[in-house]
């Protein structure tokens, strides 16, 4: 769960700095995107590990499927919201809003999620 947090937090912070990088030129935007890819690259395998710890064997496939479908649906919604933000505010606002949302998500994740059911006091 810590690796997921670092992956999402790193991507989110870099998302906030993406407009600044874009104004800095192609080299900066390339560097930010490569770093974002490195942070994001750890998230998907860690989600599988999370479900291996939390879900009973008979439910793992369904939970993984719902997780990945949710990611795809979230991406589609982000595209629509991003378009609305570009039209009504600015292209930079997309990066600021989604970057901050990712940071807030990390705070909630840290407060709610534990590595395994054994570590969760609410179960």
General description of the model:
This protein is mainly α. The protein has one domain (2-116). 83% of the residues lie in helices and 0% in strands. It has five helices and no strands. Helix 1 packs antiparallel against helix 3 (43-54) and helix 3 (43-54) packs across helix 4. It is elongated, with a radius of gyration of 16 Å. The two termini are 17 Å apart. The mean pLDDT is 95.
Task: Describe the structure concisely.
It is found in: Membrane. This protein is mainly alpha-helical.
Overall pLDDT, averaged? Answer: 95
Radius of gyration: 16 Å
Q: How would you classify the helix and strand content by structural class?
A: mainly alpha
Quote the distance from N terminus to C terminus.
17 Å
As a percent range, the share of helical residues equals over 70%
Outline the biggest β-sheet.
none
Tell me the count of domains. Answer: 1
Shape: elongated
Order of helices and strands: HHHHH
- Quick one: how many beta strands? 0
Low-confidence stretches: none
Approximately how much beta-strand content do the residues carry? under 5%
The number of distinct helices, counting runs of at least 4 residues, comes to 5
What are the SSEs and their pairings?
Elements: H1 2-24, H2 26-41, H3 43-54, H4 60-88, H5 91-112
């Amino acid at each position: 769960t810590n690796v997921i947090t670092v992956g999402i937090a790193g991507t989110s912070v870099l998302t906030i700095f993406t407009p600044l990088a874009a104004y800095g030129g192609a080299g900066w935007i390339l560097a930010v995107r490569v770093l974002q890819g490195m942070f994001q690259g750890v998230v998907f395998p860690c989600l599988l590990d999370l479900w291996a710890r939390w879900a009973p064997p008979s439910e793992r496939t369904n939970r993984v499927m719902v997780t990945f479908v949710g990611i795809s649906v979230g991406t589609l919604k982000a595209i629509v919201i991003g378009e609305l933000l570009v039209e009504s505010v600015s292209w930079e606002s997309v990066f600021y809003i989604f970057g901050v949302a990712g940071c807030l998500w990390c705070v909630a994740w840290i407060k709610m999620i534990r590595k395994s059911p054994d570590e969760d006091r609410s179960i």
